[in-house]
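Encode chain A's predicted structure.
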Amino acid sequence: MQIKIDIPEAIGQQLIAQWGNLAQRAKEALAIEAYRSGSLTSAQIQSLLNLSSRWEVEEFLKNSQAYLDYTESDLEQDRQTLNNLLSE
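Encoded structure for chain A:
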């Protein structure tokens, strides 16, 4: 599917100068927001962005700060789960 957006030429040129491939950056922004909202899974992000591995997806999401809702409480719960698994 192709989606077209219209932006002023000057703004488009400024963004291209700063970001390079504007279409790819728009697709990445869409992927990040869709992941944050729960609309897409990491597997779907991999397909959307043509990433070669799950690890590449994780790196992309981490670098994009897509995990902003991960709290210290979440970390503590994950640590507890890991400890429980290791002690079994």
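Residues 9-87 form one domain.
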